[in-house]
Amino acid sequence: MAQRQRQIASEDSEERKLRYLHVYDWILDFIAKNNLTGGDKLPSSTELARLTGVSLISVRHALDKLEHAGKIHRHQGIGTFVAKDRIVSEPSRTGRLLETLSPSGGPDLATEVLAINIGLPGPEIAKALSIEIGQPVWEIMRRRSLGTTPAILEQAVLPLSLVPAINESDLQAGDSLYTLLAERYGLRDDYAEQSLEVDKPTAAEREALDLGPRDQIVRIRGVSFTADGKAFDCYQQTYKASDFVFYTSGSGSRHLLQPTDMKQWVVLPLHGGKSASSAKKVAGRSGR
Q1: Strand locations in the chain, DSSP E?
Q2: DSSP three-state, residue 231
Q3: Angstrom distance (rounded) from CA 148 to CA 115
Q4: In a domain? residue 286
Q5: Tens of pLDDT, residue by residue, the chain (288 residues)
Q6: What's CA 165's distance to the chain center, in Å?
Q7: Residue 107, preceding bond cis, omega within 30 degrees?
Q8: Region for residue 141 given its phi and psi (left: phi exceeds 0; alpha: psi -120 to 50; beta: otherwise)
């Protein structure tokens, strides 16, 4: 008797799974057949239940899966919409951030300079930059937005020994940080080593990128090197996972950094000191 009850429960579970998968596939077919694109509205949950002949529970399960896969966006009280096409990021390419995004030259991203600070590197950043923990660094925080939608949060960490001064007005004007470093200090990125992870956002990342409770992020941490192997920039880039596709190519053999070197990627305030610049928001366009 108990074995029969377990068999029935298993069959019911499998049937429920098949029902939500039926709705999942039906919605994708509906989008394709009707040539719907990003921002187009989909039928309501009630209407989807009627059209597919399944329960609202199965419809909501399917919508949860589609949203998690980045196929749709749901806005409470407004409706369900087809997700916009995701931006292709090629983080293995060196140079300006916009040049690592497709289409060529990158999408039209606006840039905000959130803060420029002087601090002390955490142990792992100090190791990555081959400097002493007590050696001060610049910390530059910027946010890229696609239209009015936050897309990428950036942190750049530069040793003051290599970059003694930063002209804040240049960054406010939207100039490329990498171009400025190359022109003024001869620091040109020949190669980079980096790690990529999918994670839950921190509170700061959630606020800066206006993320919902179910959103995940892709976090890239890396170090840029000159042709002679000098590390000059530790960077972190945080992306909303559902908005980007990541593509990598090429090969590497240096392995100067290991994933274990990147767990505490932090800059600490100078003891008793103040930030070089309080948090600011400055519109413009720029590269990495």
Answers
A1: 72-75, 79-82, 87-89, 101-102, 109-121, 137-146, 149-159, 191-199, 217-225, 231-240, 244-246, 267-269
A2: strand
A3: 19
A4: no
A5: 555 455 444 545 555 558 889 999 999 999 989 988 888 999 999 999 999 999 999 999 999 888 877 788 888 788 999 887 666 555 555 555 545 555 544 557 788 899 999 999 999 999 999 999 999 999 999 998 887 889 889 999 999 999 999 888 878 776 788 888 999 999 998 888 888 888 999 999 999 999 988 888 989 898 999 999 999 999 999 988 877 777 666 555 555 566 566 566 788 887 655 444 444 444 444 455
A6: 28
A7: no
A8: beta
Answer yes or no: is 77 within a domain: yes
The owner of tokens 């792992």 is 124
Q: Which two tokens stand for residue 132?
A: 């002493």
Does residue 122 share a domain with residue 22? no
Greatest extent of the chain over all pairs of C-alpha atoms, in Å: 81
40 and 95 fall within a common domain: no
Residues 93 and 65 in one domain: no
Residues 68 and 199 both lie in one domain: no
In a domain, 146, yes or no: yes
Same domain (yes/no): 18, 139: no
Residues 138 and 257 in one domain: yes
